[in-house]
Write a structure and sequence with these properties.
Residues 179-193 have a biased composition (Basic residues). Residues 1-40 form the signal peptide. Pfam families: DUF1176. By secondary structure, this protein is of the alpha+beta class. It has 2 domains: 2-38; 43-177, Sandwich (Immunoglobulin-like). 42% of the residues lie in helices and 22% in strands. It has 6 helices and 11 strands. The chain has helices at residues 2-12, 18-32, 34-38, 134-144, 164-174, 177-214; strands at residues 43-47, 50-54, 60-64, 71-77, 85-91, 108-110, 113-114, 123-125, 128-131, 149-152, 158-160. Helix 1 crosses helix 2 (18-32). The longest helix has 38 residues, at 177-214. The termini are far apart. The model is unreliable at 15-37 and 181-189 (pLDDT under 50).
């Protein structure tokens, strides 16, 4: 491939030195490389008690860190319009005294108050709650991101929420998700306007038909 490119450029740059031509070709190849166009640099960043890791294709994972005593929440989310997302809350750790007790789902607290998970798209096991439904994940994050801590009844286990909102904003920015939300919002608004205009036209047509029928013959 480079040989063909070189032949084209030699024809266009007759009289240039070999050194100048080689430097130009090397620069052009780097700019046109698919990897440089499609991939971003991997990144890892901490926001208070939350760690975010994104790979070079902007698949991002965030989880709580620090003194959680085995209660961990993990969110993973892909970039792009077709979002592949997963959220897990799990209890682990060797010798955990509450691991053999009741399932963790009914015992979760948000800032000391019961954290109800009413959506049926949660998969519930004794020590694990998870869902891959994007709408359920978004609703849950909206519910908890302004809070302080998720904890367990009768346990030391905690998920600090300090830094969660900043971590989510970082992922949104990394994956350019704000632009996607704006486009979806504009599309929904346009759809609502079209539906409203259609309903108005139908109502106007019905009114005209009634008026015509009421006219004396």
């Amino acid at each position: 491939m480079l040989a063909k490119i070189a032949a084209v450029f030699r024809a266009s740059f007759r009289g240039c030195t070999t050194h100048v031509l080689s430097a130009y070709l090397g620069s052009a190849f780097r700019v046109c490389s698919p990897a440089s166009l499609a991939w971003a640099a991997p990144v890892q960043q901490t926001f208070s008690d939350w760690l975010v890791t994104c790979n070079n294709q902007n698949f991002c994972v965030t989880r709580n860190v620090g003194l959680h005593y085995g209660l961990v929440m993990t969110l993973s989310r892909s970039a792009g319009a077709a979002t592949d997302a997963s959220l897990r809350i799990e209890l682990g750790g060797v010798g955990n005294p509450v691991a053999a007790l009741a399932p963790i789902g009914p015992r979760l607290l948000l800032d000391g108050k019961p954290l109800a998970l009413v959506d049926k798209r949660w998969q519930v096991a004794d020590k694990l709650l998870k869902t891959g439904d994007s709408a359920t994940i978004d609703a849950f994050l909206q519910q908890v991101q302004e809070g302080q801590v998720i904890s367990l009844v009768d346990g030391l286990q905690t998920i600090s929420l300090q830094g969660l909102k900043a971590a989510l904003l970082f992922i949104d920015s990394r994956q350019k998700r704000g632009r996607q939300r704006k486009r979806r919002g504009l599309a929904k608004a346009k759809s609502r306007r079209s539906a409203s205009a259609g309903a108005g036209a139908a109502h106007g047509g019905e009114s005209r038909r009634i008026a015509i029928a009421a006219e004396p013959r």
